[in-house]
Design brief:
Peptide/nickel transport system substrate-binding protein; five-stranded mixed β-sheet; four-stranded mixed β-sheet; single chain; Peptide/Ni-bd; globular; alpha+beta
């Protein structure tokens, strides 16, 4: 559970009503403690951000449970990608990069004017140290980075790979926090250290911490002239939709990312409230699909997975669980609209919206699953009964499961929804101790489909049940043709050649469905404009604006300005 996966936020879907009453009261009490500061926030140039669970003081940039602003606000990468659109990488700590002709050596040029927030100079030695630390520490290296690094001058770092590694570029450039050698060389175990006094290059640094709130203050030595103009950022724990809604309406929180049913009415209930929806992640039913790696249950049968796919009434799911802000997904697991140029077959561009119970039933009949007297199918004495897990508090996903239970019953599949803690949910998926699980996919190292497909489908990124598949292939899916296509795509930067390989992968996953897509999940982000301006808007989506989004959060906080 070590590198922070930017596509799997720890808290994103939140509970409602009675389950949240206590959390709401606690949040508002905490907000009242900061009320005086909020009332003079224009003068003080401070804002408040809704965070998830903040009970553990963890600012380790290699940890999957690091506190929300660790990546991007305190620590920075070399480059940054805007996932709201297809875009080239934007320089952060680096100013340029180049590959050798063989694709085995990556040379990175760095800024001269950067300091760590303790005043020490940032140099290429820090970059080389970071990547060598990752390469020699398997627990920090789920992406399998196979490179050694050296500083050839103060502003130049060179990474050398064992083989042609062009597709490592986004992971190296834009998905790795750079850490200071003078601090981390003395840390005995970088996998467990909580790094309570983080030294980064980002626009803010830690001022104070308690389990009830923590405060970041402006890094006065930040390298980008005139930024940030916000002086302090307070993070408060928000673990429910009701708490987020109440804090926004009361004017106690300036930036939140929460799924809020009836969001338009909520926005009207408070002053100076606005929101954006940036759906970029596809909600999927993850299946433990590979019996050869130890998965057990009816979901290991491709016919069952296909029947679930066909039996879904996605229009109903989007209306009930998506709150009218979900988007239409694609069986390719890519994003219609943004990724159209990567979708090879127009027939797989979008998911069917209505259920096809007849075809689902015919598939199950042909596979030997016959209906019993109770309406549930069985085969070889085993009922077609499946357990699907989601996280307690993810209200929209809980509603998906409850609705799917009814939809699948129509074709003879018994679905048993369960709710567990985030840690239990994550451990079950990672170790293969599940049958079905709701999750989302779509944010890799860049918007190139390779990073979704390699993480979720490559044999090298999975593991037998009982062992950790932390690199991403938690379905345990394995297919030689997919592996071959990924290898070919990784060896070229020719997008036409890559698209031809992705077409092969798309055909296979549309048939095998190790991940059963539901819809493109909403990504709602809410702002209070009374204390700060310059937030992302529909017409100026300069970042993917979710408050939990690694890297982007730092761009937002150094861009916004105190309201005058």
């Amino acid at each position: 559970m070590l590198r922070n996966p930017t596509n799997r936020p720890r808290v994103r879907r939140l509970v409602s009503a009675a389950a949240a009453a206590t959390a709401t009261a606690l949040l508002l009490a905490a907000c009242e403690g900061a009320a005086a500061g909020n009332q003079t926030a224009n003068k003080d140039a401070s804002i408040t951000v809704a965070a998830g669970d903040i009970t553990t003081e963890n600012f380790n940039p290699f940890s999957s449970t690091a506190l929300q602003p660790t990546l991007g606000v305190i620590y920075e990468p070399l480059y940054w990608y805007n996932f709201a659109k297809q875009s080239d990488p934007t320089p952060v700590l680096a100013t340029g990069f180049s590959w050798n002709a063989a694709g085995t050596e990556l040379t990175i040029k760095l800024r001269h004017d950067v300091k760590w927030n303790d005043g020490q100079p940032f140099t290429a030695k820090d970059v080389a140290f970071t990547f060598n630390l990752v390469a020699k520490t398997p627990a920090l290296n789920p992406s399998g980075l196979a490179a050694t690094a050296k500083a050839t001058s103060d502003d130049t770092a060179v990474l050398t790979f064992k083989t042609k590694s062009l597709m490592q570029e986004p992971a190296v450039l834009a998905n790795q926090a750079i850490v200071p050698e003078h601090i981390w060389k003395d840390i005995k175990d970088p996998t467990t250290n909580l790094n309570k006094n983080p030294v980064g290059t980002g626009p803010f640094k830690v001022k104070s911490y308690t389990p009830q709130s923590f405060v970041l203050t402006k890094n006065e030595q930040y390298w980008e002239a005139g930024k940030p103009t916000i002086k302090e950022v307070r993070y408060l724990p928000v673990t429910s939709a009701d708490a987020a809604s109440a804090a926004l309406v009361a004017g106690k929180v300036d930036w939140a990312s929460a799924y809020l049913p009836g969001i338009d009415n909520i926005m009207k209930s408070g002053k100076n409230l606005t929101y954006v929806n940036t759906p970029v992640m596809t909600t999927v039913v993850v299946t433990c699909s590979n019996a050869a790696l130890g998965c057990t249950g009816p979901q290991t049968d491709p016919a069952v997975r296909k029947a679930i796919y066909l039996a879904m009434n996605r229009e109903q799911l989007a209306k009930l669980a998506g709150g009218g802000v979900a988007g239409v997904g694609s069986p390719t697991m890519l994003l219609p609209g943004r990724d159209d140029n990567w979708i090879a077959d127009a027939g797989t561009a979008k998911l069917p919206q209505s259920a096809n119970a007849d075809e689902a039933g015919q598939l199950l009949d042909a596979a030997g699953w016959t209906k019993g007297s109770d309406g549930v199918r069985a085969k070889d004495g085993k009922r077609l009964s499946l357990t699907v897990q989601t996280v307690t508090g993810w209200s929209d996903y809980i509603l998906i499961n409850d609705t799917l239970k009814q939809q699948l019953a129509a074709v003879g599949i018994e679905l048993k929804p369960s709710q567990v803690s985030w840690n239990e949910w994550n451990a079950a998926q990672t170790n293969g101790k599940f049958q079905l699980s709701l999750d989302s996919v779509g944010l890799g190292a860049s918007t190139n489909p390779y990073f979704t497909y390699d993480s979720k489908l490559a044999t090298t990124n999975t593991a037998p049940v009982g062992k950790s598949a932390s690199a991403g292939n938690q379905s345990r899916f394995s297919n030689p043709a997919v592996d071959a296509a990924l290898k070919t795509a990784a060896g070229t930067t020719d997008q036409a050649a890559q698209k031809a390989e992705y077409a092969k992968i798309q055909s296979i996953i549309a048939d095998q469905l190790p991940y059963i897509p539901v819809y493109v999940n909403s990504m709602l982000t809410e702002f209070n404009t009374s204390r700060a301006t310059g937030w992302p808007t529909k017409d100026n989506m300069y970042v993917l604006p979710a408050a939990w989004k690694a890297w982007d959060a730092g761009i937002v906080l150094k861009t916004i300005k105190p309201a005058s």
